[in-house]
Amino acid sequence: MSYLRKNIADMAGYVPGFQPPDAVSWIKLNTNENPYPPSPQVIQAIQEATGDDLRKYPDAASRAGREAAAELYGYPVDWVIMANGSDELLNNLIRACAGEGEEIAYLHPSYSYYATLAGVQSAQVKTFALMESGEIKDLPERYTGKLFFLTNPNAPLGLRWNVEEVAALADRCDGLLVVDEAYADFAADNCLELVRQKPNVVVTRTLSKSYSLAGMRLGLAIARPEIIAALDKIRDHYNLDRLAQAAIAAALIDQDYFQSCVERICATREWFAAELEKLGYHVIPSSANYLFASPSDRNGKRVYEALYQRKILVRYFNDPALTHGLRISIGTREEMEKIVQALSAIG
Ligand SMILES: Cc1ncc(COP(=O)(O)O)c(C=O)c1O
Q1: Which candidate, 192, 253, 223, places its Cα nearest to that of 69?
Q2: What is the pTM of this model?
Q3: Of 108, 116, 104, 92, which is closest to residue 147 (Cα–Cα)?
Q4: 222 near 270, Cβ under 8 Å?
């Protein structure tokens, strides 16, 4: 007899990107982290928060961070919620909307964690195939499921849909359209304004990538107050600790530092894409801090292994839709020069 629910006993867990224990000796381009440190103002805010106050619980409403986000994105505070990483929001959105046997949808390929979350919930999953051109196969005129996750820009391909396209998708969904904008800060545009226009749109963001704070676990969502209120009921009441709350407010306020890091990463991305093309790679135009690129023999694993031997980590997906290529995070210009040299030697 098992003590576990059958779906939990039967499901496979999510497998995060590999974090090598001896990280310093690797060029690590496998989990879309930011190669630059967090803003000095963030470090200072965290240091200032590490005093006697740590014996007290943090602000359960994460007000400082919510106010900073509300100001930055132009929404009232009750349209904003903070989370311990945007993964927490994705989890709570599915818990709020889809019960056992109810259906949710997402594109394939996209963020594979949605499948795990649906599995925990015993929700049904419908996937729609995404082509490298951006075309979505077999999308019905109306999608009647409870929730649709749209990773925009798409992970791992990097392509994106513009606001009009996402608005049209929202109109076709009976349920919630969750626009997972983990990488939107690296794109020319985003869907924040749709939250005001479409009652069923929620936008989620993370500070893991564009704000260099993956280690702090910080995310947020913008949605209508009634949806925020529902998410508020579900979350752990102290989901952001004191250090995280200090960090998120300081990070969102220091926009100059944020902008300069994002600009450098986007410039490196364009340079790297051109170098890959010179090496004969097929590169999907990317609006994120990574590129999906395939060698001419379409053997992603061969290149992954050869890079691994040289202590360069990139992401290879053992998924028939993705085995022909690799997802390569954008590091510093120096790191990308090293990978270009390695790829040119590997052939
Ligand atoms: C598409 C997408 N959404 C969400 C996340 C989760 O981000 P966080 O670190 O905020 O939990 C990731 C992380 O890799 C991601 O790729």
Answers
A1: 253
A2: 0.97
A3: 104
A4: no
CATH assignment, 40-254: 3.40.640.10
Atom of ligand 1 nearest to the CA of 180: 3
d(C-alpha 242, C-alpha 253), whole Å: 17
The closest-lying atom of ligand 1 relative to the alpha carbon of residue 110 is: 1
Token pair 């939107």 in the structure block, residue: 184
- The CATH code of domain 6-30+256-346 reads 3.90.1150.10
Domain residue limits, the chain: 6-30+256-346, 40-254
Distance 166 CA to ligand 1 centre (A): 20
Does residue 1 surpass a pLDDT of 70? no
Q: Which tokens sit at 10?
A: 């039967």
Tokens of 201: 């749109």
More confident position, 346 or 24: 346
For residue 29, what pLDDT is reported? 97
Residue to substitute in 113, 117, 217, 240 for testing ligand 1 pocket (most ligand atoms within 8 angstroms of CB): 113
For a substitution probing ligand 1, which of 28, 152, 186, 208 has the most ligand atoms within 8 Å of its CB? 208
Helical pair 113-121 and 86-97, crossing angle rounded to 10 deg: 40
